[in-house]
Amino acid sequence: MIDVLGTGSAPRLVVFDLDGTLYPKEAYAEQVLAVIGRMFVELQGASEAHAEAKVAELREAMRTNWSGTSTTSFVRANGFDVAQWLEYRETHLSIADGLRRDDGVVRELGRLREVVPIVLLTNNTRGSMEAILGKVGIGTEGFTEVFSSEDSRDTPKPDPGAFQVVLDRLGVPAEGTWSVGDRVDIDIAPLQRLGGSGIAVDGPADLGAAVDHLIGLVRRA
After folding, report:
1. How far is residue 186's CA from residue 137's CA, in Å, rounded to a whole number?
2. Distance between CA 19 and CA 10 in Å, rounded?
3. Which residues are CB-contacts of 45 (< 8 A; sequence separation ≥ 6)?
4. Mean pLDDT, the chain, as a whole number?
5. How far is residue 210 from each of residues 14, 60, 112, 206, measured CA to CA in Å?
6. How far is Cα 164 from Cα 154, in angstroms, rounded to an integer?
7. Are 68 and 185 in contact (CB under 8 A)?
8. Quick one: which H or E segment has residue 198?
9. The CATH homologous superfamily of the domain defined by 3-25+100-220
10. What are its E.C. numbers (predicted)?
11. pTM for this entry
12. Closest CA to 28 of 74, 80, 75, 70
């Protein structure tokens, strides 16, 4: 089921999230939790008990407030800088290994790309992003442009600055831009603060409904 959050304006650009949006969040959460636990021990010298407590805290946040929980924000709040987090997850995390091709995702993105430019914006590193997109079957070539952590640098989502990077690069105003993601506070609210709109999805199974809505807006304009 989708949740449309916006003005109803016709999209001139659609920004897609990656994790939990173009592949199921279940393939992401437990792997990330395990890596964050290791990071507390190896980089901060924390005890196993402390690391387990922190992982439990993040797991509960994901369970009760998935829409508002950002792993990047969590690690930053616990003393890691963005560069540390990206380097560590690039070395120790391989979400792509557990994924497979999803023809439904490929089809829906292709339908939308025929009527409006689409881009990807993710807090993943470029290497991880490319591996995930390759396994799902889209590839970076499935988007007009892709934006990774290397592009947003010190303003990763949920910072609106991540979306501003996209808007500046594509030369599209926020008012004509829509975001599609599984977490309202992370993937949609930051663009709304700039004047844009969004559609919240529960995962890839909702992409068809989201694409139908966006195509309808384009055709009615």
Report:
1. 25
2. 25
3. none
4. 95
5. 11, 28, 10, 6
6. 12
7. yes
8. strand 197-200
9. HAD superfamily/HAD-like (3.40.50.1000)
10. 3.1.3.-
11. 0.92
12. 70
Domain positions in the chain are 3-25+100-220, 26-97
Q: Measured at the alpha carbon of residue 29, what is the angle toward residues 24 and 30, in degrees to the nearest 5?
A: 120
Residue % of the chain over a pLDDT of 70: 100
Please tell me whether residue 4 adopts helix, strand or coil conformation. strand
Nearest alpha-carbon partner for 41 in 80, 95, 81, 82: 80
3-state SS of the chain: helix, strand, coil percent to 5?
Answer: 60, 10, 30
Beta bridge mates, 120: 16, 146
Say if residue 75's pLDDT is above 90.
yes
